[in-house]
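Weekly modeling sync, notes
Attendees: S.R. (lead), two postdocs, one rotation student

Agenda item 3: backlog of single-chain predictions. S.R. asked that every request posted to the team notebook include the full sequence so nobody has to chase files. The rotation student volunteered to paste the first one in as an example of the format we agreed on. Action items at the bottom.

Example entry:
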Amino acid sequence: MSKNQTRLRKALKPKLTGLTEDDYYLNDKGFVVFTEKYHLRRGYCCKSGCLHCPYGFNPKQTREVPKPESK
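Predicted structure, as returned to the notebook:
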């Protein structure tokens, strides 16, 4: 882990209460990335297209169903 990532992790720690270091990591751009372990512990898919989604959700394969037109 780089010095910058360590600094970001310390800054985010108060906002990420209840999470362990196995639940997430910071990518090269400083974004929080949740691990498969975290998703499984949470117990459901949020349908956000998470990188480590263990539930198989793929936003590219999901189609929006058009709403019926009201008369």
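Discussion: group reviewed the output briefly. Strands lie at 24-26, 32-34.
Action items: rotation student to repeat for the remaining queue; S.R. to check formatting next week.
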